[in-house]
Amino acid sequence: MPTRQTSSSGRPKSPRIQVVLPEDLCLRLSLLAEDESRTVSNMAKVLIQQGIERLERQRDAPPACPAPSPSPPGAAAAPAGLAPPLAGSTAGFRAALERHESEGPRRLRGIPRRLRLRSLRG
Q1: Per the confidence metrics, is the pTM higher than 0.85?
Q2: Which CB contacts under 8 angstroms, 24+ apart, belong to 92-96?
């Protein structure tokens, strides 16, 4: 059951859940989040939303619809640009986290570096 906290202003915060992931899945999630300039938490939220929507569409589809064709053999399992997961590799997971920390904060795409305000004086 998700827990709900209250903010200092008294408004309820979004429910929180805790998920335990294997190291290789956590590494893949971290790499996807970095690629999308998102936090790991936000990337997990987006992927959960997409998965739920896909499952609901499949469930609500009329029974006469043909099943989607499976992916051809050799199709990429991970998004382009990502290395295959390091199954059970604690060292690989630790190295990826350290690399991510050493890069420092990244500017989000589409956000201006500096905001220019025009003077109202004529």
Answers
A1: no
A2: 92/27, 93/23, 93/24, 93/26, 93/27, 96/27, 96/30, 96/31
